[in-house]
């Protein structure tokens, strides 16, 4: 996983999962995201890189309408999930977020037990018919998040008592427990130490088997390690989007080149 | 990597930093250290002064008020003569009730004269004067006993009757022979009799449960006044306050904090709630008078109305505290809940509200404690004054039957002329303070109990 043989990475059949066209975001008077169009493939990892304040997290939060919770945010343009407009008035953001899960920058487990953290999503969406069903869902989610072996003996211990890396994996387990189709990750490793980061990165690579993963990261090495496609944002513009290998070895835009070589940002 | 030009004006500002050993302090450092020491001294001084005043306050409250919890009583054998009370001998309750308390006065006078004679106390006082040693409520006490049990008629029964407030004051050291010189109720000769009765063990001072449990009494009988019914009035008001202000306040806070759009209108409401918390409480009293009594037609002096007024007064406090508690819940918890597809309502009720509960509970208890101590708004709805109240007929009747409240009762006693009521007022303050302390203790315990431990 940690190799940098970028060109040899197998590309799956490229099916578009999310398609964004001409997306603009305003926070009050501030124009945070300017005319972004991007196609995000299914069952692959897409990385958003760029300096702080470039709009990558803003764009990520558009994809599951988390920006709705910010009163001053205004989103225009069209974002489609499987060809359906997610900003259609008929779409209930609650249902959308069950399909498009999210993992946040800072691990934010609920102050409840590990079991309850994972079971919460399935419970409110009515995914389990019995206690045994729920147990199975929790175990599956924790296994997918590579936390089962560490947590199976203390499922009733508080989730906030885990280490930072374990907490983040618990948040990933919580996100995958609702069986989403897309997993959005907003700098999931920025609060973690290198060992925990490696574990989460490994996990992301495995999650790719089942989900379309979009990850925002500040670390270009991380983007290079885990993603198949990379989008470079700068000052609210999507500057360049392409195969990760191409972006890092042969960027077309001089700004991308400056950023990945450390001259701006 | 610096904005300072190498040879520019900023670079050439001379710096006076004389070479000096760190082992010796320079004048500036000494001055700063002195300033800090002075500030600490001010703080400590203020603290000690505050504690001293608190100690003086508590000591004077206890000194003045503890007397109200004891009362002087006289064990008086009263001959309940049939010829006076039931001339026809029918024991018919209707006939017995025809004899007013006036009719019992003679019995008490006779009983006093006999007691004084039996104990061999020499006095020049007439029997009618001797009866002044007793509370003016004594006749009613004997009459009530007879009406409750007519078989007592014809026997000599020993009643534990209250001594008059002057006698009680003499036993407690408040009344002296000098202070009685101008008194129309009692003369020094009475006190001689009282001394003799004390020596014989007939006149004793004991714990007075009627002060904590009983009702207020008229100006003539300070010895019989109690704060119990007013306490009941306060309790009923607190039930109304809790039952209304907690759900309304918490629901309003959740709506304003989590759901309401942030615009000029909600800003306006927010500012107004903050201002309402600072509105003088008597203004709420006027509002209550107009809205609940004059407009809605609710009864005056009723704890229900008092509770409604205090609810209005407590709501802003509860809303402010609840909103602060909700704000203090980290936004990441909301994000986490929304991120797994919870609705906003679910995010609030499953995750945010449980974390805010300790703060809400503490704020509610503190707000209720404040409401418990309020007098001013009750002035306008007729709960301050001599509210001749009896225990309510039932649990629900307690909400509407005329009543007072503890602080209103204290105020009422404090403004009456008789110094015996002064002691009552201080005693009432002790009772009120005990309640306030208990409520604050509850706030601390609730906070400890529900505080998030992980």
TrEMBL record, chain A:
<dbReference type="InterPro" id="IPR003439">
    <property type="entry name" value="ABC_transporter-like_ATP-bd"/>
</dbReference>
<dbReference type="Pfam" id="PF00005">
    <property type="entry name" value="ABC_tran"/>
</dbReference>
<dbReference type="GO" id="GO:0016887">
    <property type="term" value="F:ATP hydrolysis activity"/>
</dbReference>
<dbReference type="GO" id="GO:0016020">
    <property type="term" value="C:membrane"/>
</dbReference>
<dbReference type="GO" id="GO:0005315">
    <property type="term" value="F:phosphate transmembrane transporter activity"/>
</dbReference>
<keyword id="KW-0547">Nucleotide-binding</keyword>
<dbReference type="GO" id="GO:0005524">
    <property type="term" value="F:ATP binding"/>
</dbReference>
<feature type="domain" description="ABC transporter">
    <location>
        <begin position="18"/>
        <end position="260"/>
    </location>
</feature>
<dbReference type="InterPro" id="IPR005670">
    <property type="entry name" value="PstB-like"/>
</dbReference>
<dbReference type="InterPro" id="IPR027417">
    <property type="entry name" value="P-loop_NTPase"/>
</dbReference>
<dbReference type="InterPro" id="IPR017871">
    <property type="entry name" value="ABC_transporter-like_CS"/>
</dbReference>
<dbReference type="GO" id="GO:0035435">
    <property type="term" value="P:phosphate ion transmembrane transport"/>
</dbReference>
<dbReference type="InterPro" id="IPR003593">
    <property type="entry name" value="AAA+_ATPase"/>
</dbReference>
<keyword id="KW-0592">Phosphate transport</keyword>
<keyword id="KW-0067">ATP-binding</keyword>
<keyword id="KW-0813">Transport</keyword>
<protein>
    <submittedName>
        <fullName>Phosphate transport ATP-binding protein PstB</fullName>
    </submittedName>
</protein>
Automatic annotation (TrEMBL), chain B:
<feature type="transmembrane region" description="Helical">
    <location>
        <begin position="276"/>
        <end position="298"/>
    </location>
</feature>
<protein>
    <recommendedName>
        <fullName>Phosphate transport system permease protein PstA</fullName>
    </recommendedName>
</protein>
<dbReference type="GO" id="GO:0005315">
    <property type="term" value="F:phosphate transmembrane transporter activity"/>
</dbReference>
<dbReference type="Pfam" id="PF11812">
    <property type="entry name" value="DUF3333"/>
</dbReference>
<dbReference type="GO" id="GO:0035435">
    <property type="term" value="P:phosphate ion transmembrane transport"/>
</dbReference>
<keyword id="KW-0472">Membrane</keyword>
<feature type="transmembrane region" description="Helical">
    <location>
        <begin position="41"/>
        <end position="63"/>
    </location>
</feature>
<dbReference type="InterPro" id="IPR024573">
    <property type="entry name" value="DUF3333"/>
</dbReference>
<comment type="similarity">
    <text>Belongs to the binding-protein-dependent transport system permease family. CysTW subfamily.</text>
</comment>
<dbReference type="InterPro" id="IPR005672">
    <property type="entry name" value="Phosphate_PstA"/>
</dbReference>
<feature type="domain" description="ABC transmembrane type-1">
    <location>
        <begin position="231"/>
        <end position="447"/>
    </location>
</feature>
<keyword id="KW-1133">Transmembrane helix</keyword>
<keyword id="KW-0812">Transmembrane</keyword>
<keyword id="KW-1003">Cell membrane</keyword>
<feature type="transmembrane region" description="Helical">
    <location>
        <begin position="425"/>
        <end position="446"/>
    </location>
</feature>
<dbReference type="Pfam" id="PF00528">
    <property type="entry name" value="BPD_transp_1"/>
</dbReference>
<dbReference type="InterPro" id="IPR000515">
    <property type="entry name" value="MetI-like"/>
</dbReference>
<feature type="transmembrane region" description="Helical">
    <location>
        <begin position="304"/>
        <end position="326"/>
    </location>
</feature>
<feature type="transmembrane region" description="Helical">
    <location>
        <begin position="235"/>
        <end position="256"/>
    </location>
</feature>
<dbReference type="GO" id="GO:0005886">
    <property type="term" value="C:plasma membrane"/>
</dbReference>
<dbReference type="InterPro" id="IPR035906">
    <property type="entry name" value="MetI-like_sf"/>
</dbReference>
<feature type="transmembrane region" description="Helical">
    <location>
        <begin position="347"/>
        <end position="369"/>
    </location>
</feature>
């Amino acid at each position: 996983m940690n190799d940098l043989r970028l060109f040899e990475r197998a590309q799956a059949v490229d099916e578009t999962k999310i398609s964004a066209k001409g997306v603009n975001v305003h926070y009050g008077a501030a124009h945070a995201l300017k005319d972004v169009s991007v196609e995000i493939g299914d069952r692959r990892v897409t990385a958003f890189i760029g300096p702080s304040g470039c709009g990558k997290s803003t764009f990520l939060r558009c994809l599951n309408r988390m920006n709705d919770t910010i009163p001053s945010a205004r989103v225009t343009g069209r974002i489609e999930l499987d060809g359906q407009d997610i900003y259609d008035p008929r779409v209930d953001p609650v249902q959308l977020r069950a399909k498009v899960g999210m993992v946040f920058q800072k691990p934010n487990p609920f102050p409840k037990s590990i079991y309850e953290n994972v079971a919460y999503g399935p419970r409110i969406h009515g995914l389990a018919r019995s206690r045994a069903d729920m147990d199975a869902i929790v175990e599956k989610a924790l296994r997918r998040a590579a936390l089962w072996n560490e947590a199976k003996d203390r499922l009733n211990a508080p989730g906030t008592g885990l280490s930072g890396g374990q907490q983040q994996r618990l948040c990933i387990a919580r996100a995958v427990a609702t069986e989403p189709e897309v997993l959005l990750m907003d700098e999931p490793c920025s609060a973690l130490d290198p060992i925990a980061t490696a574990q989460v990165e490994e996990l992301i690579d495995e999650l790719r088997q089942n989900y379309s993963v979009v990850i925002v990261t500040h670390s270009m090495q991380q983007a290079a390690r885990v993603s198949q496609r990379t989008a470079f944002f700068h000052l609210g513009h999507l500057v360049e989007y392409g195969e990760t290998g191409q972006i890092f070895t042969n960027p077309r835009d001089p700004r991308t080149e400056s950023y990945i070589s450390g001259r701006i940002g | 990597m610096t904005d300072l030009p190498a040879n520019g004006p900023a670079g050439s500002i001379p710096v006076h930093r004389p070479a000096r050993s760190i082992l010796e302090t320079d004048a500036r450092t000494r001055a700063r250290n002195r300033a800090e020491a002075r500030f600490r001294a001010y703080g400590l001084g203020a603290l000690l002064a505050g504690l001293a005043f608190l100690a003086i306050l508590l000591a004077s409250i206890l000194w003045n008020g503890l007397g109200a919890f004891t009362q002087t009583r006289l064990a008086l054998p009263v001959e309940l003569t049939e010829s006076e009370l039931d001339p026809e001998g029918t024991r018919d309750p209707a006939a017995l009730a025809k004899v007013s308390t006036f009719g019992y006065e003679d019995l008490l006078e006779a009983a006093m004269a006999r007691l004084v004679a039996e104990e061999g106390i020499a006095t020049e006082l007439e029997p009618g004067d001797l009866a002044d040693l007793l509370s003016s409520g004594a006749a009613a006490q004997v009459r009530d006993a007879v009406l409750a049990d007519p078989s007592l008629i014809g026997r000599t029964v020993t009643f534990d009757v209250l001594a008059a407030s002057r006698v009680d004051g003499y036993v407690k050291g408040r009344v002296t022979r000098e202070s009685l010189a101008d008194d129309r109720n009692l003369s020094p000769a009475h006190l001689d009799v009282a001394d003799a009765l004390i020596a014989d063990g007939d006149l004793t001072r004991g714990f007075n449960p009627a002060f904590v449990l009983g009702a207020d009494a008229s100006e003539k009988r300070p010895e019989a006044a109690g704060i119990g019914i007013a306490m009941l009035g306060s309790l009923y008001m607190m039930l109304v306050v809790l039952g209304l202000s907690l759900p309304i306040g918490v629901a309003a806070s959740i709506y304003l904090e989590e759901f309401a759009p942030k615009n000029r209108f909600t800003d306006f409401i927010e500012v107004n709630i903050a201002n309402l918390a600072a509105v003088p409480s008597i203004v709420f009293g006027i509002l209550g008078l107009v809205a609940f009594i004059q407009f809605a037609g609710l009864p005056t002096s009723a704890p229900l109305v008092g509770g409604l007024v205090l609810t209005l007064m407590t709501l802003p406090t509860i809303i402010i505290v609840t909103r602060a508690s909700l704000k203090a819940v980290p936004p990441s918890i909301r994000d986490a809940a929304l991120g797994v597809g919870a609705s906003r309502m679910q995010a609030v009720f499953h995750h945010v509200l449980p974390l805010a509960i300790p703060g809400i509970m503490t704020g509610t208890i503190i707000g209720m404690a404040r409401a418990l101590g309020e007098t001013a708004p009750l002035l306008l709805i007729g709960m301050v004054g001599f509210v001749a109240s009896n225990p309510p007929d039932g649990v629900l009747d307690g909400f509407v039957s005329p009543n007072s409240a503890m602080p209103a009762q204290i105020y009422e006693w404090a403004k009456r002329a008789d110094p015996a009521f002064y002691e009552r007022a201080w005693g009432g303050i002790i009772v009120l303070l005990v309640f306030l302390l208990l409520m604050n203790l509850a706030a601390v315990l609730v906070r400890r109990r529900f505080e998030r431990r992980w």
